[in-house]
# Entry
Amino acid sequence: MKRIALLGMPNTGKSTLFNRMTGGAARVGNWPGITVELLSGKILLGPDMVEIIDLPGIYDLHGYSDDEQVVRHFLHDNVPDLALVIVNTTQIERQMSLLLQLKQLDMNIVVILNMADEAKKFGISVDAAKMSALLEMPIFLLSAKYGSGYPEALQAVTKALRYPTPGMAEELRSQLEQDEHIETEMARVLKHTVQVPARLSDNLTDKLDSVILHPWLGLPIFFAVMYFLFQGIFIFGQPIQAGIAEAFTWLRETALVPLLSSLPQALQGLLLDGIYNGVGTVAAFVPIIVLFFLFMAIVEDSGYLSRAAFLMDALMARLGLDGRGFVMLLMGFGCNVPALMGTRVMRSRAMRLLTMLVIPLSLCSARLQVFIFFTAALFSPKAAPLVLFSLYMFSFATAIITALLFKNRFKNTEPFVLELPPYRFPTLRQMALRGWLEVRHFLRRATKFIVVGVVMVWLLTHLPLSAVPASADTLAGMIGGALHPFFAPLGINEQLTIALIFGFIAKEIVIGALAVIYSLSGDALGSAIGQQLDWVQAYSFMLFTLLYTPCLATVATLQSESKQLKFTLLSLGWSLGLAWLVSFAFYQGARMLGY
Amino acid sequence: MRYFKFTIIMSATTLAALHPGDIATIVSIHAEEALHLRLLALGFRSGKQIELIRKASFSGPLQVRVGTTDVMLRRVEAAKIEVLKS
# Structure
């Protein structure tokens, strides 16, 4: 099968074009010579199936960034039959350098001058036919966002694929040491074909920036935007989540329970409470992920995310992170899973891993449910908000400490120079496609992991079959007993230890697990716990719940995004260790002070 | 007196020392290779005009405009770019 590689600088609309060409039917895959996965899609072009590969955006073919190395290695080991080079027309005066570098590789090239709509608005005019003649390459003006010029370009691509691949990417680097030639060539072509007005007429962006990046107003606006984003995701998301949960219960009660009633009790439990609940856990994340990425598409594609980076950089630079990391950290307070997936905008791997290490410490909405239950059971209505607030403070503080401790281990070596693109609004199509692609990615990567995890916890809490589920006689109870010496110094009893084992799957089920363990529910459970524990023990339990492994879905996402077992284990180990230390320090400290 | 004035107007400074609204010409870039390459690709070249749009509060990054591209960079990095204020 013939292969087309999409190449271009960041912010050229490369992914938009990729999605337009493949219609969103893309898959991630591994390629020889490189360690990261790339998106690719197969389409019918003329008579043949052709594979299109979306390479990461690069500034320079011989640069040192992670992405630049990926592209270099890819071209070296997988010479494409055609390189489709995408250039942002509004920035053609500097982006042509990459085009000329690629031209030197003697590959089969078709050039797309993208964002033709925007260039026209800015008053930039390009003589594509003349440029085509000067550079001896087919060049097309188009708008990947709106689709104008697309059919012509596709026709040229089909035609170009008929020629054999002329060049080989061997000796890539040695060919690329001729920058001076590129400079003069660039000047020559630009002079004859491009007209850029002396001052860009994008007053709208300038005006918006003067408010959004205002020295005093900028940060309050940023926090307001984050607040609405956050609220938006959960106001829309929670009813959908509840609806999905109801649908799953309905299906279970009306169809699955009668269907499976002839099976032995234990097998029924395994199928329904193990596998079926596992699938339900996965499904519960779907609406949140879709909504998160619908909103994220707006924040990112509008250009606001780089503005957020600008506003927050003064603080984040000291933590070894950048402003985009702060946005993801805040979003983690809703749900860690999409926040971890969202770190993909960071192109430096070290910085991305550091951000991914910090995000699981964000107090997500699932943990909040546990805390609300416990504060209601153990604290006065007056003290409860203070208790919740203090937990949020612990969440922030541990995130900052984690970043400071690990910033030298995950040292960012890429220069921090970010483009601030003009403000744009993504089309509905772009937003919907983004949400759909991310959910599919999550489902493919995390489903198996989560279902296996849920089944394992079911087995732990139900074996041996003779024991009362989740009691001290089950495997989980035995583990709880064995772990007791570790948890006793934290003031966490055996029942709560078993609940923590459940909490490993998802914090949403901690309260449900306690109900099973105590055979009580609702207010009765609350008052039973309130009588058994004092506030120091309860707070210690909440601190542990806040900091240890967030949930199986987060672990699955950490693994699928980092693709590094060592990193996932580090994150798991660090959060468990930190949870133990903080709870220990709190519990023993409070007891020493006489509480 | 005239010479004195001449040296003040033409004195080279760094991008980090400019004020919002200042327009200058890039003289040279004293950066390590990775940063140098990135700046080149973003359109930073000797002789090019550069405008400082704004500085973020709390010693945050700078927003500059080179050609048609707006770029943010930190003050440490901006100090490596020598410019001639015009």
